[in-house]
Give the backbone structure.
Amino acid sequence: MLIAITRHVSPAIGKCELTHLERQPIDLAVARAQHRQYEAALKSLGVDVHPLPAEVDLPDSVFVEDIAIVVDEAAIITRPGADSRKPETESIAKALAPYRKLFYIQAPGTLDGGDVLTVRKDIYVGQSSRSNQAAIEQMGAFLASFGYTVKGVKVSGCLHLKSAVTQVAADTLLVNPAWVGKENFPGMKFIDVEPSEAYAANAVLVGKTVLYPSSYPKTRLRLEEAGIRLVIVEASELAKAEGAVTCCSLIFKV
Ligand code: GLY
């Protein structure tokens, strides 16, 4: 069975971190409605959704993906690259403790889960403004005992590695090649985003179905033409906070 940990949208979302986008007003009611739709979509795929209460003082805390990496054998609690996000770890560690042995990234390591793409036993970590070499080395040392290889990947033009590439089928990645090189992912097939839809590479694979935002119709067509089954969600309001569909859940097997 799959569990998804989510967290309700903070009333402080308007003060979120922004790296590549200009600040725009975020409608809290719309963001919350879209987030509820996202949770409902996960439930429709058989995922047991465990929502945490909103964190009033932590603007980005809806983006739970950044706070942990969960593999079958353990979970890593990150040390987020943005100082405003470091206090998000406490409640996520509590939520994960019943399910996994926890390992913590230590200073000077910094790591956002949005930079971590796991494909079977290969773990790719974006070398971004949020995640550094010290964290990559700590992950590698910890996860080697479970048979994982951890590799740093250069990424540019976007916030996180998973802004640029995500998995959409067992052997297929959805990628924006302007932001990350395909040569980093040997043995995989690729679907490129439409060049006019730069942010379209972020998708959530649940079993054999992909949760995908409605905002990228041309890339959606490419996915459908490749035979990928999609569940479409509205995610435009949290996109203004530089958050995408993978950011809003931590999904793992129990
Ligand atoms: N606003 C998402 C982040 O910067 O972490």
Summary: The chain is about 20% helix and 25% strand. The pocket of glycine is lined by residues 16-17, 19, 60, 63, 82, 85, 241-243 (CB under 6 Å). Residues 28-44 form the longest helix (17 residues).
